[in-house]
Specification:
- The chain is α+β, with helices and mostly antiparallel strands.
- Among the domains are: 87 residues, 2-Layer Sandwich (Uridine Diphospho-n-acetylenolpyruvylglucosamine Reductase, domain 2), CATH 3.30.43.10; 167 residues, Uridine Diphospho-n-acetylenolpyruvylglucosamine Reductase, domain 3, CATH 3.30.465.10; 115 residues, Alpha-Beta Plaits (2-Layer Sandwich).
- Helices cover 37% and strands 17% of the residues.
- The strands form 4 sheets. The protein has a 7-stranded antiparallel beta sheet, sandwiched between helices. A 5-stranded antiparallel beta sheet has the order 5-6-10-8-9.
- Strand 8 and strand 9 form a beta hairpin.
């Protein structure tokens, strides 16, 4: 939906007198920032590229006084619609993209929100350091966006998610006040200088105390989660620590203007195991055998993708037995080559001794590792060549369950997709019980558009029955916000709404994400258009 052109021009004119950064309110700018790496299209009034936190303060004060939504945007890599909105889009990649300082001895770095993961790791490499969370979009994903979704990657098993690496966050609150939040430090230590922060802290403390029993009862029992608001890790050493709440809040509570992050030595050696299995039931015990030896990640490739690669690649057809039902890729890394290789060898021996695997292969050189990873990497071009108007759709693509329930989740998805007549390809992070699903739909077909809603409902019900959540790392955005009540129940959804009201009573901060707008349907935000000529990739 296009925001009113006259209003856009008027708001743009106002902002040019308030900020030093770029005011981007021409029609081409509005087109550019109406989409991202998601299916959604929302026309903004325009965009502002701030040069400093002062510009962000000015925009928020202006927007709050007029009830205009504000959406923070990094690289636009979010797949759930977090970075599109119908008000003012704050673009951090033009000016606020500096690395402010690297402390190699203290293993920390200070960054602007517009710095990409690739840029950060390139700057850290001469010091033998890196930022461990590794989403596949790291060449374009910004640190601000990664914090906003609590991003992760394929090595969460060892290194955790972004929230685990935050030392402090600088933000602008809804009123335009600046605030700093420090991990493990009670917010009361910083609230004395900020009336708005003191108000937020007092209200959050009262809410958490009143709903303590509920939060303990409904706490997701998964190893990673970017679904809803994280209200389960807010106890600091002596009081309330709000950093885990802001990480993953998708710009709905405050706008991040800077961060201090911990970093880690870059591994000097990696070993990979590829394990082929003939039964889905064998995945869980093999994963447990691998976890006992400290892997950095365990990836799962499911039958449909394996069959696709075998059918489209003669070398893979010879290499991978027809009986293969699932494949696991386990990675081990570290600073000592012998120690890494010994752990990988011990893990391989344990799996072989179990008698569960069709085949176990170990790779310790880069060339050998590429050969083992080819089973997954070769799927992308083959997916592109699949016939028909249905294309890979990021819809129910980020569910996570307790690792012991992963086989039940895979089996449930396969039954669901078969019943609905939908092709889907499953892969993901088995060590965390976290699956990515490439489901094939035609968004121009009215039947498939109705099917989008049905699949969201049925997958949500499946995840709820298994103790899982809708998102392990990609967040909720417009895609999933409307299903959080179905997943978590009305009581916890009521608490999420309370949190939103505490931080953003005017409702201007990225509305419709995390807490849905009543009566809004996510499919109505997905434009139908002719099939684009684009690359379909695994994500």
């Amino acid at each position: 939906m296009r925001a009113d052109a006259d209003r856009s021009r008027a708001v743009g004119q106002d902002l040019r007198g308030l900020v030093r950064g770029d005011v981007l309110f021409d029609e081409i700018d509005r087109v550019l920032y109406s989409t991202a790496a998601c299916m959604f299209e929302l026309w903004p009034l325009g965009a502002v590229a701030p040069v400093d936190a002062g510009d962000v303060q000015a925009v928020l004060r202006y927007a709050r006084a007029r009830g205009i939504p504000v959406t923070a945007r990094g690289g636009g890599t979010g797949v759930a619609g977090q970075s599109v909105g119908e008000g003012i889009v704050l673009v951090f990649t033009r000016h606020l993209h500096r690395i402010r300082g690297i402390d190699p001895g203290g293993r920390r770095v200070e960054v602007d929100p517009g710095v990409t993961l690739q840029e950060l790791n390139a700057a850290l490499a001469p010091h033998g350091l890196r930022f461990p969370p590794d989403p596949s979009s790291g060449d374009a994903a910004t640190l601000g966006g990664m914090i906003g979704t609590n991003a992760a990657g394929s090595h969460t098993l060892k290194y955790g998610t972004v929230k685990d690496w935050i030392e402090s966050l600088s933000v602008v609150l809804d009123t335009g006040e600046q605030a700093t939040f420090r991990r493990g430090v009670p917010v009361a230590a910083d609230a004395a200088s900020s009336p708005r922060l003191a108000e937020i802290a007092a209200s959050m403390r009262a809410l958490l105390e009143a709903r303590r029993d509920l939060l303990e009862r409904v706490r997701p029992r998964v190893t990673k989660n970017s679904c809803g608001y994280n209200l389960f890790e807010l106890a600091g050493r002596d009081g309330l620590d709000l950093v885990p709440l802001l990480a993953g809040s998708e710009g709905t509570l405050a706008v991040i203007t800077g961060a201090t992050l911990r970093v880690d030595p870059k591994p000097v050696h990696v070993a990979t195991l590829r394990i082929l299995l003939d039964a889905l039931e064998k995945v869980a015990p093999v994963v447990e055998a691998l976890r006992a030896h400290g892997p950095s990640g365990i990836e799962l490739i499911e039958r449909a993708m394996i069959d696709l690669v075998r059918g489209g690649d003669a070398a893979m057809a010879d290499e991978v037995p027809p009986a293969t039902r699932s494949a696991l890729l386990g990675e081990f890394d570290g600073l000592d080559e012998r120690e890494v290789d010994d752990r990988a060898a011990a893990a391989a021996a344990a799996v072989r001794a179990s008698g569960l695997a069709l085949e176990v292969r170990v790779a310790t050189t880069e060339r050998e590792r590429r050969q083992l990873w080819a089973l997954r990497k070769k799927a992308s071009p083959l997916l592109e060549r699949l016939p028909g108007p249905r294309r890979s759709t990021r819809l129910v693509e980020d569910g996570v369950v307790p690792p012991a329930r992963l086989a039940d989740y895979v089996r449930g998805l396969e039954r669901l997709f078969e019943r609905r007549g939908v092709d889907a390809f499953l892969f993901g992070h088995a060590g965390d019980g976290h699956l990515h699903v490439n489901v094939f739909l035609d968004r121009n077909d009215p039947y498939d558009r109705r099917l989008m809603r049905i699949l969201m409902e049925e997958v949500t019900d499946l995840l709820r029955s298994l103790g899982g959540t809708l998102s392990g790392e990609h967040g909720d955005g417009l895609m999933r916000a409307g299903y959080l009540e179905r997943l978590f129940g009305p009581e916890l959804m009521g608490v999420f709404r309370d949190v939103k009201r505490i931080w953003d009573p005017a409702g201007i901060l990225n509305p419709g994400k995390k807490v849905p707008i009543e009566g809004e349907d996510f499919v109505s935000r997905i434009p139908a258009r002719p099939r684009p000529l684009r690359r379909t990739t695994l994500h």
